[in-house]
C-alpha cells in the first residue's frame, strides 16, 4: 500500500498561506509584547534581543537551505528514475526484433499496453491508493506475461545474443519500474518540515518583539521578507510532492515511446 505523510493530505498553497498568516499574527503578538515591556527593559537587554533575532534568522536560513537541498535532490532522483525507466523500456522495444518471429507480435502488443499504463499511472495522485493499486496489479500482470513469453522464446531460441539479450533488457525494465516506485515514497522527513515551520513562525514573533522594544513598526520590510520566505517554503513542499504539487516531473521521455516527439504533448507526473 502506498504510504503518504500527514502533510501530503493538504494543499501546498493552504499550508503556505496558513504559515504566512501565523507569522503575521506572531509578529503582532510580539510587537505588542515588546511595547508592553519597552519601558521596563534597559539597553543591554534590547541589544541581546537583537542578537537573538539574528541567531533565529540565521537558523531559519540554514534550515531553508538544508530542506530545499533535500527536496530538490528527491525531485532530481525522480526525474532520473523516469528517464532510466523510459530508456529501459525503449531498449526492450528494440530487442523485440531479436526474438523468434512467432513471439514478436505478442510481445510488442504487451509492451504497448505496458507503456500506456505507465503513462496513465503517472497522473494519479498518491492519495488515490485504491486506483493506484489497481494499476499496479495490471502492471504486475503485464510484467508476468512478458516474462513468460520471454521464457517461451528462450526455449525456441536459447542463444544469449538474441533471446538472452532480450531477457536482460526485460529484467532491467522491471527493476527500473520498481526503483521509480520506491522513489515516490521518499520525502523530506516531516520532523524536518515541522522544525522549519516552527522556526519560521518564531522568527515572526522575535521580529515583532524587537520592533516593539524599539517602539517602531517595520511592517513593509517584515511582510516582504516573510512573503519571500513563505514562497521558498512553498517551493520546498511542492518539490517534495510527486504527482500532486505544481512542480512535477515531465513525462516526455515516456510519451516518446508511445508517439513521435512531434505529436507528444508532455503532461506532468
Outline the structure in words.
With 269 residues, the chain is mostly helical. The chain has a single domain (7-251), classed as Methane Monooxygenase Hydroxylase, Chain G, domain 1 (Up-down Bundle), CATH 1.20.58. The chain contains eight helices and no strands. It has helices spanning 12-37, 43-95, 101-121, 129-156, 160-183, 190-214, 219-239, 252-258. The longest helix has 53 residues, at 43-95. The two termini are 19 Å apart.
Write the layout of secondary structure elements.
Elements: H1 12-37, H2 43-95, H3 101-121, H4 129-156, H5 160-183, H6 190-214, H7 219-239, H8 252-258
Helix pairs in contact: 1-6, 1-7, 2-5, 2-6, 2-7, 3-4, 3-8, 4-5, 6-7
Strand content: under 5%
Just name the CATH architecture: Up-down Bundle
User: How much helicity do the residues have?
Assistant: over 70%
Q: What is the number of beta strands?
A: 0
Low-pLDDT segments, ≥5 res: 260-269
List the total number of helices: 8
CATH class: Mainly Alpha
Shape call: rod-shaped
CATH third-level topology: Methane Monooxygenase Hydroxylase, Chain G, domain 1
Largest β-sheet summary: none
Q: Separation of termini?
A: 19 Å
The sequence of SSEs as H and E is HHHHHHHH
What Rg, in angstroms, do the CA atoms define?
A: 27 Å
